[in-house]
Specification:
Bound molecules: zinc ion
Distance between the termini: 74 Å
Strand content: under 5%
Structural class: mainly alpha
CATH class of the largest domain: Mainly Alpha
Strand order of the largest sheet: 1-3-2
Oligomer: single chain
Shape: globular
Length: 502
């Protein structure tokens, strides 16, 4: 067959896989936002059936034959087609390396472990979860063996979430980050907290919702190609560049929770709305890694949404939405309130200054587990020691310690580091943006985000999966992934906020 016919056939097959994937995503979105409780049982069957179908399509021998045939003729393909073949072949080979029996066994253990973890966390009983964790660690090591690796089995697992990154490279990056971030947190704690009596009390839910919609719209989120709903855990989800949805949650007593969730998920969504049209219904239509995706959400949330120019712009809007509540409040007060730093036990509640430390704790423990240097039964003790070391806190119970996150019950080892990488990539990209967009902060203060979005579209969004994350960072910033920009950003911002030089 001619190469044109083969490419057309490849795109047809990939379109089919993408459609099934989007249908799964839509069912998941519905499950989290609208589905009545009695729909849960049928939904789990629907999701299992469609997931199996997707896996079958993705691992079909006919797809492999087509891809290997096209790879032989890569030099006759145009750049986009060649990239499509390369990226799809990577996914295909990773998928077929895992025997079907193993995939089923892993999935069965995951759902068992999830149910046990929920109960273990509720009762703060690690011993209950320990056997499940042991099994998932053993299966994850087997998974790494099937997938293959050079230096560490953790590399093979990491690749699923952060292709192009290795355990050794992460140890180097986090090794440079942890002591500097810990030292900064120590100085902030010693400096004492600002007084913010006006933050207490309840905040109108309708006003919070309206504010979040207003900001999403100002950021450039296209409501003709998306919508916002409420869910218990905020998320963003992609069906097509023409349909990218976000969710948020509203707490009466936490003014910034809804807004910051919306900005965060909006950052993810802008990325997905910005992929190239020609990449629709192909594997190129995605970010290169979770870390790169997280860089987009965290840049909008932290570097823009938690900046002083942002609050100079939006405090008047807050005054209108919450009558009487902000009359004597200055932008500097809102800026201080949204940037409170306080070492705490819970990762998802952590501020910008302490967040990465939570990740480094998990990363070090995961690597030790997967490399066989730590046994599951020793996790609580090791966890508590690291929390003391990095955050200076005593862990009162496992529910607020090693049982707090859902990830290990999914067997998702290698996922956590992507959150911290997102922070680091965001700072590196933001520095490049500051250099390249004249008067960037004036635009933010005017609530004009088009220059930011256009820059991100051009440098990050349209490339999809064409480059791996480290390569993209190097091309845009001229530097390898590094903690330097993030540490400098934190020291500048929080040094000023907490008057650390005074
Ligand atoms: Zn995120």
């Amino acid at each position: 067959m001619s190469k044109t016919v083969d490419i057309q056939e490849l795109r047809r097959k990939l379109g089919e896989i993408s459609d099934v994937h989007a249908a799964i995503a839509l069912l998941q979105w519905d499950q989290e936002t609208c589905m009545p409780p009695k729909g849960a049982e049928a939904r789990s069957f629907q999701l299992a059936t469609l997931s199996a179908l997707e896996h079958r399509l993705l691992t079909a021998e006919s797809l492999g034959a087509l891809l290997y045939g096209l790879r032989e003729r890569t030099d006759t393909l145009d750049a986009d087609d060649a990239k499509l073949v390369e990226v799809t072949l990577h996914d295909y080979e990773r998928a077929v390396k895992l025997p079907e029996d193993f995939v089923h066994a892993f999935a069965a253990e995951q759902s068992k472990a999830l149910a046990v973890w929920i109960e273990a966390r509720r009762t703060s009983d690690f011993a209950l979860f320990q056997p499940n964790l042991e099994t998932l660690v053993r299966l994850s090591r087997e998974k790494a063996d099937y997938l293959g690796y050079e230096a560490s089995p953790y590399d093979a697992l990491l690749e699923e979430f952060e292709r192009g990154m290795t355990t050794a490279e992460l140890e180097r990056i986090f090794g440079g980050l942890a002591p500097r971030q810990s030292a900064l947190v120590e100085r902030i704690v010693a400096a004492g907290q600002p007084e913010l009596p006006w933050m207490t009390g309840e905040w109108d839910e309708q006003a919070q919702w309206a504010f979040s919609l207003r900001i999403l719209s100002d950021m450039g989120y296209d409501f003709e190609a998306g919508r916002q709903d409420k869910s218990i855990h905020p998320f963003s989800i992609y069906f097509d560049t023409g349909d990218v949805r976000v969710t948020t949650r509203i707490h009466k007593d936490a003014l910034f929770s809804c807004l910051m969730s919306s900005i965060h998920e909006g950052g993810h969504a802008l990325y997905m709305q910005g992929h190239a049209d020609a990449d629709r219904r192909t594997p190129l239509c995605d970010g290169p890694s979770l870390g790169m995706h997280e860089s987009q959400s965290r840049m909008w949330e932290n570097m823009i949404g938690r900046s002083l120019p942002f609050w100079r712009c939006y405090l008047p809007v807050m005054r209108e939405l919450f009558p009487g509540r902000f009359d004597n409040i200055a932008p500097e007060d809102a800026y201080a309130a949204v940037n409170l730093v306080e070492p705490s036990l819970i990762r998802v509640e952590a501020d910008e200054c302490t967040y990465n430390l939570h990740i480094i704790i998990r990363f070090e423990l995961e690597v030790a587990l997967i490399e066989g240097k730590l046994e599951a039964r020793d996790i609580p003790e090791a966890w508590n020691a690291k929390v003391k070391q990095y955050l200076g806190l005593d862990v009162p119970d496992d529910a607020r310690g090693c049982l707090q996150d859902v990830h290990w019950s999914h067997g998702a080892f290698g996922y956590f580091p992507t959150y911290a990488l997102g922070n680091l990539y965001a700072a590196q990209l933001f520095d490049a943006m500051l250099e390249q967009i004249p008067g960037l902060w004036d635009h933010v203060e005017a609530g004009t985000f088009a220059p930011v979005l256009e820059w991100l579209r051009e440098h990050v969004h349209v490339h999809g999966r064409r480059k791996l994350a480290p390569e993209l960072i190097r091309d845009i910033t001229g530097h390898d992934p590094s903690p330097d920009a993030y540490v400098a950003y934190l020291e500048r911002k929080f040094g000023e906020l907490y008057r650390l030089d005074a």
